[in-house]
Amino acid sequence: MRIVGIILVILSLPVLIAWLRRYPQQRKWAYLGVGLLPFIISAFNLDAAFINWEGWPGYAKGLVVSLLDTLALAILVTSKAPFRKLPFIGVFLLYLVAAILSVAVSTLPVSSTFYAFQLVRVFILFVAVASFAGTPGAMRWLCFGLALGAVFQAVVTIDQRLSGAIQATGTMGHQNLLGLMLHFVTLPLLALLLAGERNKLIMIGVLSALIAVALGVSRGAIAFVGIGILLLFVLSLARRPTAHKWKITGLAVLAMTVVVPVGISSLHERFGGRSAYEGPDGERQAFERAATAMWRDHPMGVGANQYVVTANAEGYSERAGVIWNYASRSTNVHNMYLLTAAEMGWAGLISLILLFAWPVLRGLHFAFRYRKDPRGDVVLGATVAIFVTAVHGLVEWIFVTGHAQYVFAIAMGIVAGSIRQYHREARLRSHAASGRAATLPQKVAASRARSMHAVAERP
Predict the structure, then answer these.
(1) How confident is the model at residue 435 (pLDDT cuts 50, 70, 90)?
(2) What gap in Å lies between CA 430 and CA 302, rounded to an integer?
(3) What is the pTM of this model?
(4) In a domain, 454, yes or no
């Protein structure tokens, strides 16, 4: 069956390319698919592994290609100059190079190659999204896909909750992953509503994402999506206050009156009499001690996708006091920056910080410099989602998984594509104005000539 899956995924590429070239008016469905697929790939097995290390304790378990990868590549192939003057290519490639360099120091280079290959797939998706995200109509269809993905996950989490699960994971396998991915749905869709969008699917998508986060009962996901929503409202109103935005703010408050009680009830059920808001527990601190020691001993890192194996094989978890059980000894330090530093060294840590910081700075600059551009609100939503994920990474490692990086690439593509498209339009307006200015003297001279000719012909 694995061979059949590989063949089907490979064959989907020429089929998708032919479809997009022959029916360019149908590209909207491809954009919708880009938003939807990250949330349904696992549920419907829409991927295939050329090399499969299912039992590997790292986060990248093989050379995997999904239907989203072939769709992104097809969009890329059928787009005009998708790499030209595209922001963020440099910082993304810097992070990719750091991952490739870590292969050289890895005790098992093949496993580290899995992560580098994953980043190549994510990079292709980023460029594909950027190729169309600057067009409002295309952006809208992408957001429809994100909304449908959230609705699907909400239905699954509700079913899991009714079946007795205290922490609903959707189809993502873990509530932390689901919660982090939904940052990139809730905030861009909410920003689209603030920009004036009135489509009911977008509204349902936001509510579905909030319900799925609440039923996941992940403290980090609940806290950071709340912080993101508050930050988005403040920045959006500061950028350009409108009566419509105040209306959406009121509706959001009403929605939270439904979602917050669900989240609080779930948290109480999960933690019983213990407070859900306690500070960092001893186990997290033990993980951080192990990662810090590993980074200190290996300034260039131990290799991407190698933390769990190295922490156990070289005794870092033992010396740091990590509990001896499968759940604790088979997972990563709950801090993506420490995880990256331990695995990819200083090069990985610096490039990861740039990968988050540069899109956030450019996104905020675009949103507040071009306040009248309607794309600015959606760019602001994607920017806040990236920022919240960067902060969330201080207490979570799940960003390094492929599904989380898919939605990150979509948000990054929205920001980069909008910036590039605005500058393209500005250049076209500038050229058009220059052309009018150049022909003006000719038109004046022609008008004078006609006037003189008319005077000469008078009797």
Answers:
(1) confident
(2) 51
(3) 0.90
(4) no
